[in-house]
């Protein structure tokens, strides 16, 4: 005959009649809750949890974290998203520059492969790591130094550029070079590879790699003559 009042928050009643409302404690789960007047209990939604039986609302996970099932009953079920790291249920921080994290959870951010870097923060993919200047390889590594006689001035997966397509024997560069100015004349040559080109030393003379002038060509052992000039057998 009434009066009838709604079941309190945290309780439910699925049938008609005068029976009392039942507390939400299905399977002793502490994550089950319901609004006032409910006919059944509702599990906490993904991204929320509830640690005690009662009428309280479910709590949201910390920023940049979420749960991965409904009905979570502990803050520790909140996992940091990919690109973030931190303890389960705790504060999550962005992966710093040069690192990435492709999975959710408390694992540390992984460092980019050797000789590669990612300039931003919060990376979720190894492929965000780009080979440094002077190195080449696929995004995500491995990265290898540009071979002698080549250079690469930018980050990424582009191939290294040859110092000279015309005469690779006369021009070289140290492995891992990052600029065309690293290109130099090979041993036995002199000049400027980016301007006049490299010229061979006179017969029976040689020079060190990187020589700029004809006078850098010295007579070989057993020969004599002026620097850069004709060399003759020692008497």
Automatic annotation (TrEMBL):
<dbReference type="InterPro" id="IPR009030">
    <property type="entry name" value="Growth_fac_rcpt_cys_sf"/>
</dbReference>
<feature type="domain" description="Tyrosine-protein kinase ephrin type A/B receptor-like">
    <location>
        <begin position="34"/>
        <end position="78"/>
    </location>
</feature>
<feature type="domain" description="Tyrosine-protein kinase ephrin type A/B receptor-like">
    <location>
        <begin position="137"/>
        <end position="183"/>
    </location>
</feature>
<protein>
    <recommendedName>
        <fullName>Tyrosine-protein kinase ephrin type A/B receptor-like domain-containing protein</fullName>
    </recommendedName>
</protein>
<dbReference type="GO" id="GO:0009986">
    <property type="term" value="C:cell surface"/>
</dbReference>
<dbReference type="InterPro" id="IPR011641">
    <property type="entry name" value="Tyr-kin_ephrin_A/B_rcpt-like"/>
</dbReference>
<dbReference type="Pfam" id="PF07699">
    <property type="entry name" value="Ephrin_rec_like"/>
</dbReference>
<dbReference type="InterPro" id="IPR052071">
    <property type="entry name" value="SCUB_EGF-like_domain"/>
</dbReference>
<feature type="domain" description="Tyrosine-protein kinase ephrin type A/B receptor-like">
    <location>
        <begin position="87"/>
        <end position="129"/>
    </location>
</feature>
<dbReference type="GO" id="GO:0005615">
    <property type="term" value="C:extracellular space"/>
</dbReference>
<feature type="domain" description="Tyrosine-protein kinase ephrin type A/B receptor-like">
    <location>
        <begin position="3"/>
        <end position="27"/>
    </location>
</feature>
<dbReference type="GO" id="GO:0007165">
    <property type="term" value="P:signal transduction"/>
</dbReference>
């Amino acid at each position: 005959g009434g009066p009838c009042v709604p079941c309190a928050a945290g309780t439910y009643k699925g049938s008609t009649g005068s029976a009392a409302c039942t507390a939400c404690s299905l399977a002793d789960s502490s994550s089950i809750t319901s609004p006032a007047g409910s006919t059944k209990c509702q599990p906490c939604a993904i991204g929320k949890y509830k640690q005690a039986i009662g009428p309280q609302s479910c709590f949201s996970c910390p920023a940049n974290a979420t749960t991965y099932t409904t009905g979570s009953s502990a803050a520790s079920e909140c996992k940091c998203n990919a690109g973030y790291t931190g303890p389960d249920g705790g504060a999550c921080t962005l992966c710093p520059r040069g690192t990435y994290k492709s999975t959710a959870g408390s694992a540390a951010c992984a460092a980019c492969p050797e000789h590669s870097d990612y300039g931003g923060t919060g990376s979720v993919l190894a492929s965000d790591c780009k080979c440094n200047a002077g190195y080449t390889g696929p995004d995500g590594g491995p990265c290898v130094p540009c071979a002698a006689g080549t250079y690469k001035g930018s980050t990424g997966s582009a191939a290294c550029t040859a110092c000279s397509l015309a005469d690779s024997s006369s021009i070289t560069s140290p492995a891992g070079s990052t600029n065309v100015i690293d290109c130099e004349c090979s041993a036995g040559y002199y000049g400027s590879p980016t301007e006049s080109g490299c010229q061979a030393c006179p017969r029976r003379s040689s020079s060190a790699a990187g020589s700029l002038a004809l006078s850098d060509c010295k007579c070989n052992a057993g020969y004599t003559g002026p620097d850069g000039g004709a060399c003759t057998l020692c008497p």
